[in-house]
Amino acid sequence: MSDKRRPAAGGRNSGSGAGLTADLEVRRGEFRLRAALTVAPGETLGVVGPNGAGKTTLLAAVAGTLDERAGTTLTGSIAVGARELTALPAWRRRVGYVEQKPRLFPHLDAADNISFGLRAHGMRRRPARALAAEWLERVGLPGRDRARASELSGGQQQRVALARALAHTPEVVLLDEAFAALDMDSAAGLRELVRDELARLQVPALMVTHDGDDLDALADRVLALDRGQVVDRAPVAPDPGPAESGREVRGTVTADGGVVVAPHHRNTLPPGTEVILRVVR
Ligand SMILES: Nc1ncnc2c1ncn2[C@@H]1O[C@H](COP(=O)(O)OP(=O)(O)OP(=O)(O)O)[C@@H](O)[C@H]1O
């Protein structure tokens, strides 16, 4: 077990999760994703790669939310411990999924959004809303129980989505750019919260990110995808955003000794710039 995943002392309901194993192929038109991976209980696998590599598709396959209307097909196996997920609908998978866009239920308030998974697993409305209120405090939105998505900023919606994903004690956690809509300080605080929660739950997690800070804080290992294939080193996607002066640039050493640099940092720096790379594990 890595240092990042030491179970929190005295944590509530410390879980004893099972690992995730997947050996799958997804086809969608010309696009094909082929991936085999295992993630141990309590381990977080960072998933990196350029735009269109198939990172979100991988997470959607595990979550059971692949868009079949788009002609997407899935073959192979996805299992948590001995429990095969592929034939199960999304709501029976016990997956905590933070999508790239928060996608809150617009007709529900923040507390009912967070309660949704709890209610689906049998908790009554009042205790579910009480637990949701606790979660809103934990993600920095105390007292916003009755706020609807339209009353919340993008970053606030992302916090609610994180709370919704974690509150129902999932067996697998999937994070897709989960911290991207947050300012730097909030992102740091929420990464810490997620790290503690994953340590408590001891479940496998997949984290798609373009941000070296996410990898630094949470990833035990990194999987690089390119054009639907697992590769040793992912090429970097172009990003036209301006360079932020004074920002530390971080990279991650991959299995073959290569370096994956957070793409939106690397591409905004002029050639010849010295970068500070911090090795993750
Ligand atoms: N709903 C959809 N319908 C049709 N094609 C799709 C759909 N979602 C994704 N694709 C296509 O599938 C391929 C993989 O996309 P995917 O979103 O998994 O990549 P990604 O690595 O997550 O990219 P990004 O970093 O931009 O989020 C791309 O070619 C994309 O255009």
From TrEMBL:
<keyword id="KW-0813">Transport</keyword>
<feature type="region of interest" description="Disordered">
    <location>
        <begin position="1"/>
        <end position="21"/>
    </location>
</feature>
<keyword id="KW-0547">Nucleotide-binding</keyword>
<dbReference type="InterPro" id="IPR027417">
    <property type="entry name" value="P-loop_NTPase"/>
</dbReference>
<protein>
    <submittedName>
        <fullName>ATP-binding cassette domain-containing protein</fullName>
    </submittedName>
</protein>
<dbReference type="Pfam" id="PF00005">
    <property type="entry name" value="ABC_tran"/>
</dbReference>
<feature type="domain" description="ABC transporter">
    <location>
        <begin position="15"/>
        <end position="252"/>
    </location>
</feature>
<dbReference type="InterPro" id="IPR017871">
    <property type="entry name" value="ABC_transporter-like_CS"/>
</dbReference>
<dbReference type="GO" id="GO:0005524">
    <property type="term" value="F:ATP binding"/>
</dbReference>
<keyword id="KW-0067">ATP-binding</keyword>
<dbReference type="InterPro" id="IPR003439">
    <property type="entry name" value="ABC_transporter-like_ATP-bd"/>
</dbReference>
<dbReference type="InterPro" id="IPR050093">
    <property type="entry name" value="ABC_SmlMolc_Importer"/>
</dbReference>
<dbReference type="InterPro" id="IPR003593">
    <property type="entry name" value="AAA+_ATPase"/>
</dbReference>
